[in-house]
Amino acid sequence: MKSYNIIVLPGDGIGPEVINQAVKVLTTCAELFSFQIELNYDWIGAAAITHTGETITENTLKKYEKADAILLGTFDDSTADRDINIKNQNEKGLLNLHHFLGLFAKIRPIKIHQQLLVKSPLKSKIIKGTDMIIYQEMSESIQFIPEKKNQNSPSELSEYSIKKIERIGHLAFQTAQKRKHTICLMENANFFEISTHWKNVIEKLSKQYPDVQLKHLDIDQAAIQLLVNPLQFDVILTSNMFDNKLTGLVHEISGSIELLAAISTGNSTTIFQPSHSAFPEIKGMDKGNPMAAILSVALMLEHLGENAAAKLINDAIAWCIEEELTTLDINNQNPLSCAMVGDMIDLFIAKNGTIDFDVKSINRDIFYI
User: Fold this and answer.
1) What is the pLDDT of residues 45-75, one digit of tens each?
2) 238 has which bridge partners?
3) What are 136-165's pLDDT values in tens digits?
4) From the first residue on, what is the mean pLDDT of each consecutive set of 10 residues in the chain (369 residues)?
5) pLDDT of 185
6) Minimal CA–CA distance to 55: which of 17, 11, 6?
7) May I ask the CATH class of domain 121-147+156-253?
């Protein structure tokens, strides 16, 4: 029987609530598909500072390196927001984690469910069928190079080696080969020399993948095209400089950021996490949407080769959305609590997709708005 060592880092805000539901689903999948999981919990973020005085320790990092995967919750709560020192420690701790594990690629699958088309600010006919994946290089760029400190004339440097651009480029091209054989590089070669460098490196690399069509879009034009015709995109490749702009836009048009998960991968243990923030305003109220955290488990199981379990999780989430068994963020008429949504997904999995009761009979009155 296969066995997996999973590090669980619930984090801050609603992180512990949504991660609890994700772990519940993971445990049920292990029982159903006959694999073992060893769960090792640890503090991270503001919660770690509160309990240990540090956001992350060297001994902790060494333990993570030996794990098969890391399930990460959310960073920052209201304490971190009020205290800039804690916020800075949080950010430094996450960067240290990425650096220690050799993580260089942030991967964000974006798929819009049929039932949630009406939740997007864009017309349904524009976004129906959207299914893309964004590859972001995360090991270099401005935030990893010391800035020149001068109050009168501050400056920041951006630097990318050919090797590191090629490294993530190979990942993106290989994914494109398994999908629709198209990839779009989104940069700003009209204004930044570093973007021209990216363009030149990726164009040269593309010759190794003759079955994949490469196109370029400057970031401003890319933003427009994502709004008017998102269906044209499949695999998107970008640098750290423009990722926040792109992903923020895509998250908005998806209808709910609480349905999106992300992967951070590289030379060592891979991290799987929900894309949304900590939502400190609803911390402890059982209102957070656990679906992104549970989707993170699906991505993790796919990464570990447990494809049947991953598919069943995705089917369970699709069923809950179709039956409107969802939380307040996407269902303001008859919402369920975070725990109840987790229970419904877990039940679907435990029954291997065979539901033998009327979902209309579920008592939703115990949830309050």
Assistant:
1) 888 888 888 877 777 788 898 899 999 999 8
2) 136, 186
3) 998 865 554 455 555 555 545 556 788 999
4) 95 95 98 97 85 77 90 73 58 79 94 84 88 90 52 56 93 98 85 79 97 94 91 93 75 80 93 93 94 98 98 96 91 90 96 80 55
5) 96
6) 11
7) alpha beta
The confidence score (pLDDT) of residue 369 equals: 39
- First vs last C-alpha separation in the chain: 44
Q: Which helix (H) or strand (E) holds 32?
A: helix 15-33
339 residue type, one letter: A
Tell me which long-range contacts 76-81 makes (C-beta under 8 A, separation of at least 24): 76/12, 76/13, 76/45, 76/46, 76/277, 76/278, 76/280, 77/12, 77/13, 77/45, 77/46, 77/47, 77/278, 77/280, 77/283, 78/280, 78/281, 78/283, 79/46, 79/50, 80/12, 80/45, 80/46, 81/280
**How is 222-263 classified by DSSP, letter by letter?**
HHHHHHH-GGG-SEEEE-HHHHHHHHHHHHHHTS-GGG-EEE
For residue 335, what is the DSSP state? P
pLDDT of residue 363: 65
Residues 6 or more apart whose CB falls under 8 angstroms from that of 144 comprise 95
> In sequence order, which residues have a C-beta less than 8 Å from that of residue 166 and are 6 or more positions away?
201, 205
Q: Do domains 1-108+258-369 and 121-147+156-253 have the same CATH topology?
A: yes
Angle formed by the axes of helices 291-303 and 307-322, to 10°? Answer: 160
Q: What is the pLDDT of residue 367?
A: 47
- The domain locations on the chain are 1-108+258-369, 121-147+156-253
CATH class for the domain made up of 1-108+258-369: alpha beta
The residue among 128, 64, 127, 68 whose CA lies nearest residue 96 is 64
Q: Tokens 């975070």 appear where?
A: 338
Q: Residue 105: which of 242, 233, 270 has the closest Cα? A: 270
- Looking at the DSSP assignment, which residues form a beta bridge with residue 183? 214, 235
